[in-house]
Amino acid sequence: MLLASLAIAAALVAVPSVSGASGPTYYLSLGDSYSVGYQPSPTPGATSGYTAVVAAAKGLQLENFGCGGATTSSILTFDDVFCGVSSPTDNPNGYGPPAATDVGPAVAGQTEVQAAVAFIAAHPGQIGLITVSIGGNDVTACAGAPSPVSCVLGVIPEIKSHVTTLVGDLRSALTAADGAAAGKKVPVIGLTYPDVLLGLWVNSGPGGAPPNTPSFPPSAGNKNLATLSVTAFKSYINPALKAAYKTGHAKFIDVTAKTGANSKLTKTTKMDIPALGLGTITVPKAVNEVCQLTWYCQLGNIHANNTGYTLIGNLIVKADK
Q1: Could you give the C-alpha distances from 240 to 69, 104, 153, in angstroms and in order?
Q2: Share of the chain above pLDDT 90, in %
Q3: 18-48: buried (b, 16+ CB within 10 Å) or exposed (e) per residue?
Q4: How far is CA 55 from CA 64, 67, 90, in A?
């Protein structure tokens, strides 16, 4: 309720634009379910997520073009007006939900990026910030692959290529709308994710019996996959994303590192989260962190909770200074 109120308040604030143009200054959000603040509980669907935190803190009007399930490919190819639409023809992959509030305008035939580019062109000098959360769904299937790290390595070139195109399109649009100097100064910030697979330390996961339920101690397979996820993010996924965003003069926030996932798994702490029903257990500090910030440990769900989204929002605010 508080985050939703902040989002509404932020939408009513008109601040001077980047180049002095009249009207509000806008914050554009693009990406996947993290970009629209998806949560499985208490009410499934899009929430205000980190975008409300950012919009309120920066005094910007949010326009959210995000779509749950988006990949680095679909953000460039999928018609955004069909996000969340139940249609085997127009949305065969079931992408959705879209943002619940402050939905960015899109017309038929426009992808997320094309819709954002059109908005930028229609509002020269009025874009104050763009954030992009994308790439997680490209590697989701690798968790169940025979060799998860090899699977991630196979996907990395595609992720890097698509994100390079995406950020290039956004930067070109800003330059065309505002001029070379001003367009280059508009902050574009790319994000990665908490390492939710660390939650397999205390959750049975999709292959458990029963699946996706709190469980401790971890099976050998779950413990191994959780450990491999650290390598995948630290050595492959995040460096590739960082390099791709850099090509478009965009900042990159390593949410994985900022949420403690890079700490050694030998560093432990006692954890007792009543919702898990496991009592007081000793786990790696990185596992405790992901349990506090996401729904994975409790529900086997990859999304951040309110605490996690607020943390991500504050990281964006700090980076945009």
Answers
A1: 20, 28, 10
A2: 90
A3: bbebeebbbbbbbbbbbbbbbbeeeeeebbb
A4: 11, 19, 32
At residue 11, the pLDDT reads 34
d(CA 156, CA 144) in angstroms, rounded, equals: 17
Among the listed residues 6, 4, 22, 24, the one whose alpha carbon sits nearest the alpha carbon of residue 14: 24
Query: In the structure, how many helices (H) and strands (E) does the chain have?
Result: 13, 7
CA distance 205 to 213: 7
In the block, residue with structure tokens 């605490």 = 307
pLDDT for 12 equals: 32
What is the residue extent of each domain of the chain? 2-196+219-261+303-319
Q: Which CATH architecture has domain 2-196+219-261+303-319?
A: 3-Layer(aba) Sandwich (3.40)
Q: Which of 281, 277, 306, 158 is nearest to 218 (CA)?
A: 281
Distance between CA atoms of 134 and 244, rounded to whole angstroms? 12
What is the per-residue pLDDT across 61-102, written as a single tens digit (0 to 9) for each?
999 999 999 999 999 999 999 999 999 999 999 999 999 999
Percent of the chain with pLDDT over 70: 93
As a whole number of angstroms, the distance between CA 64 and CA 132 comes to: 10
Distance CA 35, CA 70 (A): 10
Q: What is the pLDDT of residue 191?
A: 98
pLDDT over threshold 80, residue 170 = yes
Q: Is 31 helix (H, G, I), strand (E, B) or coil?
A: strand
Q: Which residues pair with 188 in a beta bridge?
A: 130
pLDDT at 2 over 50: no
Q: What is the Cα–Cα distance from 198 to 195, expressed in whole angstroms?
A: 6
pLDDT range class, residue 48, cuts 50, 70, 90: confident
